[in-house]
Design a protein that fits this description.
- The protein has one helix and eight strands, in the order αββββββββ.
- By secondary structure, it is mainly beta.
- The protein has an eight-stranded antiparallel β-barrel.
- It is elongated and about 80 Å long.
- It starts with a helix and ends with a strand.
Length: 182
């Protein structure tokens, strides 16, 4: 009985190593993609009560070194956010360049979970009371998501990215997109 159990375990381990290695090989390399979804900006400070959602989008590219680690950078546009307070329409136009270290966790042959930590270099223009004020900075960016590898060269992604931008309460992007592997 023990020898049969050892054989079954050996065959299972060998299968995981062989098939798992093929999955790893398929995931290494350059990738690029785009995504779009719900962008949110909330500011509730110093008498300002701004809370807006709009369509946001992003372009990204990265390199996956192995099945667990990669780097990714991109451009994100938070849309044309608008809200009114104190009888005035306020518009915020914000975008940025981001750079992340990405950790991947293969959970099935065609599925990965991933987490990202990095920063965003952002730019925002606020239009209110007939004037435009600009601001920019660099701040923490975090993200998490899942990818379904439809085939060896294309994956569908769903992800949530949070940006710790100074003088805001919430800035995030919830997106669906796709990525091509090169």
């Amino acid at each position: 009985m023990n020898s049969n159990l050892c054989r079954v375990i050996s065959v299972m381990l060998a299968s995981v190593m062989i098939f798992g290695w093929n999955v790893v090989q398929a995931r290494e390399g350059f990738y690029a993609g785009a995504g779009g979804g719900l962008a949110h900006i909330k500011i509730d400070e110093s008498g300002v009560d701004f809370d807006s959602d709009d369509f946001g989008w992003k372009l990204f590219a990265g390199y996956q070194f192995n099945e667990y680690f990669g780097v990714e950078g991109g451009y994100v546009d938070f849309g044309d956010q608008s809200d009114s307070f104190a009888g005035t329409n306020v518009k915020v136009d914000a975008d940025g360049l981001d750079l992340y270290a990405v950790g991947f966790l293969p959970v099935a042959e065609d599925w990965d979970l991933f987490g990202k930590v990095g920063f965003i270099a952002w730019n925002a223009d606020v239009k209110a009371f007939g004037q435009t004020e600009g601001d920019d900075g660099e701040d923490l960016a975090l993200g998490a998501g899942a990818a379904w590898h439809v085939n060896e060269t294309f994956a569908l992604r769903a992800e949530f990215e949070w940006f710790d931008i100074d003088d805001t309460d919430e800035v995030w992007l919830l997106s669906l997109g796709g990525a091509f592997k090169f």
